[in-house]
Amino acid sequence: MKHPQVHPDTDQLKLTEVMAALSDPIRVGLVRLLSDDVERGWGELRAPVAKSTLSHHLKVLRAAGLTRTREEGTRCFVRLRRDDIATRFPHLLDAVLEAADNEDVGHQVGLVSDSVTA
Which residue, 40, 37, 15, is CA-closest to 82? Predict the structure, then answer.
């Protein structure tokens, strides 16, 4: 049985929930990875945590409204809600991504395909 995906509407996004979701380096790494605006399958994502922990991080990002998850059969896909975040909190995402890049936060998150070719 599938569980419904809960995605808050843009006007329901709360700054404290977004900031709390961004308080973990793995989640910041996921946001950095997804900032290229490409929808990714959960199985494509690589992080130094158990799959269940990665799933938890993705659910936290979704609940805060940072990402949108789409199910297709047994697969899940995730995309950053860049436009919705920019509408609700102008420049916040850009500032977070720039700071994360400058401080190399979340560098351990990548794509499975990157580790195969490395």
Answer: 37
